[in-house]
């Protein structure tokens, strides 16, 4: 009985530690307005990360830049 309990406990810990980490895709819409106006979509894959870690990395890709002529805005979200 002790061996069975030990096996189940160890299996549960290993499953919990590995089940939440996987490859996750962050999709970014990049929009440029001004003299040169266009839009594009770019995907970034984060390999073997948890959902919280991927959300943090993905939201870090959000940005906006204005050079006085054009404005470039990147809006990203985890798929």
Low-confidence parts: 4-8
Instruction: Figure out the total of helices.
Output: 2
Number of domains: 1
Query: How many DSSP E strands?
Result: 4
Strand and helix order: HEEHEE
- Whole-number mean pLDDT: 86
The strands making up the biggest β-sheet line up spatially as 2-1-4-3
The helix fraction, in percent, is 25-40%
Strand content: over 45%
SSE class: alpha+beta
How far apart are the first and last residues' alpha carbons, in Å? 44 Å
Taking Cα atoms only, what radius of gyration do you get, to the nearest Å? 21 Å
Q: Which overall shape is indicated by the principal axes computed on the Cα atoms? A: elongated
Main sheet specs: 4 strands, antiparallel
Short account of what is shown:
The protein is α+β, with helices and mostly antiparallel strands and 79 residues long. The chain contains 2 helices and 4 strands, in the order H-E-E-H-E-E. The protein has a 4-stranded antiparallel beta sheet.
How would you explain this protein's 3D organization?
By secondary structure, this protein is of the alpha+beta class. The protein has one domain (21-78). The chain has two helices and four strands; from the N terminus they run αββαββ. The chain has a four-stranded antiparallel β-sheet.
């Amino acid at each position: 009985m002790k061996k069975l309990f030990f096996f189940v406990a160890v299996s549960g810990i290993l499953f919990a530690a590995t089940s939440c980490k996987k490859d996750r895709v962050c999709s970014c819409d990049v929009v440029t307005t001004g003299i040169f106006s266009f839009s594009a979509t770019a995907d970034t894959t984060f390999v073997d990360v948890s959902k919280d870690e991927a959300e943090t990395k993905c939201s870090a890709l959000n940005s906006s830049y204005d050079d006085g002529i054009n404005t470039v805005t990147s809006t990203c979200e985890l798929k």
